[in-house]
Design brief:
five-stranded mixed β-sheet; 12 helices; about 40% helix; Nucleotidyltransferase, domain 5; about 375 residues; alpha/beta
């Protein structure tokens, strides 16, 4: 099955085409093509993602990216006897420029030639995420579905992060747990099988990536600051820098549950910076190292507890923060200690992407049939408990 994936949950406009087969027990995936536009540079001036701007940029980029994606892609003969352009226009009534560009693109490249791209399903992120951004992707998917009469499935973004590891050679063993750490989420998911998910731990306030970015701003780094904090921390470790006056708490380290809380850690960093006054490069590196170590200590403890409590046979790790090499190394050590495999996505699939949405759509198609132009609601706080 060939699947078109669409991801617009935050500040990445992403499309892809994949081929999926071999069923749900041992699925195999081939990435045929991808197209991506990152809005990071646009949002720098805001110090974070600004929803209205993200929505606007998604609407501007989707058609050019689709044209790039489908260029030279196989097509089949198709008789466009009656396209209901009025219905398509109604679907895209909040993004008229997007409708105009889409109609022109489809008309010139497909309708005029009586051709249709040969993908068989569309998978689109319906949540969680920024709702204005989600709506653009959802309505674009519904419009494409109506034009080409190809069915659509809405996909949970967090399930996408879990299944992003399936492009690797080895499939996880079940039961498994998944640690999801990103800019907006920190969750531990118990997995009995694909599609059978239970959230057993989550952040009570700041997500891990959010805490990294906020600490970065405190020490004067530009958005996105998380990767810069990691680089400073690694420099401090390489140079063996330390300062006994700079020590931070490990919130909820020994609580019996699997939840996280990072707001107290963030506040402790803020107070320490105020106490120290102007920071030189050495002080910034030490603060970054101690902050990161506090985060890693909490992640390690909660992950160990989750493995022990669930009897997990695999550890799956996903989300943008897992690009952090130090966190990866620590989680790999835990998996080795517990004698279970750990599964990470490739670097390219760690951040928000359409490939993971397509994969999740394929797996979901075994439990829910896709429909042509279904009603889909953007759900900014969509949970992963299935």
């Amino acid at each position: 099955m060939k699947i078109l994936g669409i991801e617009t949950s935050c500040d990445e406009t992403a499309l892809c085409l994949i081929e999926a087969d071999s069923g749900i027990s041992a699925p195999k995936f081939e990435i045929l093509n991808t197209a991506l536009f990152s809005q990071i540079e646009i949002h720098k001036e805001f110090g974070g993602v600004f929803p209205a701007v993200a929505k606007r940029e998604h609407a501007k980029k989707l058609v050019p990216l689709m044209s790039e994606l489908l260029k030279n892609h196989p097509t089949t003969d198709y008789d466009y006897a009656e396209i209901n352009w009025k219905k398509v226009e109604e679907i895209l009534n909040r993004e008229y420029e997007l409708f105009s560009e889409l109609k022109k693109c489809i008309g010139e490249n497909f309708v005029a030639k009586n051709l249709r791209p040969d993908f068989e399903m569309i998978a689109v992120t319906s949540g969680p995420g920024l709702e204005p951004a989600l709506w653009v992707g959802i309505n674009f998917a519904r419009a494409i579905s109506e034009i080409f009469q190809i069915p659509v499935l809405p996909v949970n973004h967090m399930e996408g992060h879990i299944v992003s590891v399936l492009t690797e050679k080895e499939n996880p063993n079940f039961p498994a747990i998944s640690l999801l750490i990103s800019g907006g989420h920190t969750e531990i998911i118990e997995i009995e099988s694909w599609g059978n998910y239970k959230k057993i731990g989550e952040t009570l306030d700041d997500a891990v990536g959010e805490a990294y970015d906020k600490v970065a701003r405190m020490v004067g780094l530009e958005y996105p600051g998380g990767p810069q904090i990691s680089r400073l921390a690694q420099s401090a470790r390489d140079l063996n820098l330390s300062d006994e006056q700079i020590v931070f708490p490990r919130p909820m380290l020994h609580t019996p549950d699997l939840n996280f809380s990072l707001s107290g850690l963030k506040t402790a960093v803020l107070y320490k910076i105020k106490e120290l006054g102007e920071l030189d490069e050495i002080k910034k590196q030490i603060i970054a190292k101690e902050f990161e170590q506090a985060v890693v200590d909490v992640i390690n403890m909660k992950t160990k507890k989750a493995i022990e409590q669930t009897g997990a046979q695999s550890l799956i790790v996903g989300g943008g923060v897992i690009a952090n090499k130090y966190i990866r190394e620590n989680l790999s050590k835990i998996a080795e200690e517990k004698n279970i495999p750990v599964h990470f996505p490739t670097t390219e699939l760690s951040t928000d992407n359409a490939v993971m949405i397509s994969i999740a759509g394929y797996l979901k198609s075994f439990r829910q049939s896709p429909e042509i132009c279904p009603d889909i609601k953007a759900e900014g706080n969509l949970s992963l408990n299935i």
